[in-house]
Amino acid sequence: MKVRVIINPVSGGKNRVKEITEALKKVCSTLDGIFEIKVTKTKGGASEFSRDAVRRGYEVVFACGGDGTINEAAGPLVGTTTVLGIVPIGSGNGFARALNIPQDVEA
Fold it and tell me: Are 86 and 46 in contact (CB under 8 A)?
């Protein structure tokens, strides 16, 4: 399995890159595959990372951020076989709440 995790480090007003990285190691430690973390630096960065993941044959892209990050990451996945995962770490997380996605990173 090839998984890319895209983190917006400023979502929710707190840099949670280390927390997400540690959770990923814990949750995925028994799985075989490639697990790659990309941290956005600019607006539009999540879209670029998603588009690149599709080109490289990643099966799953996790968007770690708020509604804006999720929207950016999801766009390039439309019409592809790459699956979107959501780790809500924004300040409101309206989209994730509407879908009853847990707010805990490991969950």
Answer: no
CB 82 within 8 A of CB 60: yes
Task: Give the DSSP letter string of 13-75.
Answer: GS--HHHHHHHHHHHHTT--SEEEEEE--STTHHHHHHHHHHHTT-SEEEEEESHHHHHHHHG
How many of the other CB atoms lie within 10 Å of CB of 59? 14
Tens of pLDDT along 60-76?
A: 999 999 999 999 999 99
Tell me how many degrees the CA angle 15-29-68 measures, rounded to the nearest 5. Answer: 35
Beta carbons of 86 and 96 less than 8 angstroms apart: yes
pTM equals 0.88
Sign, CA dihedral 56-48-68-104, equals positive
